[in-house]
Amino acid sequence: xxxxxxxxxxxxxxxxxxxxxxxxxxxxxxxxxxxxxxxxxxxxxxxxxxxxxxxxxxxxxxxxxxxxxxxxxxxxxxxxxxxxxxxxxxxxxxxxxxxxxxxxxxxxxxxxxxxxxxxxxxxxxxxxxxxxxxxxxxxxxxxxxxxxx
Length: 149
Description:
This protein is mostly helical. It has one domain (3-145). It contains nine helices and no strands. It has helices spanning 3-15, 24-33, 37-54, 57-66, 70-75, 84-90, 93-112, 119-132, 136-145. It is globular. The two termini are 24 Å apart.
């Protein structure tokens, strides 16, 4: 990542309210993927938002217990204006809901200056960290919530 894109990411992160302070999982993923903590923090928020949108409240609660301030990350995920295509998705049932989540995630990652090719690495990093730290069920639930990817 170039210095200017790193600076741009920090500006976007501040604009969407993503804190630059991170926990151990953020640091682990940042080192593993050679990304800034700001990028990983914002990405986690986006991924948690998609998982929350695609899981039951009870299942998302499992993730919330394992991930400190999970709802805070969701609240600070990039806000993306709903496109007319997203509006169509929302009226198409479960399949539409998944398409709407994909549309959101693509837009959020674009806003953060990250590519969609980085999504699997981020998911793997977060779930591996959870799994290695005694949160196997939370890791499996997160994967389930992001299975559309």
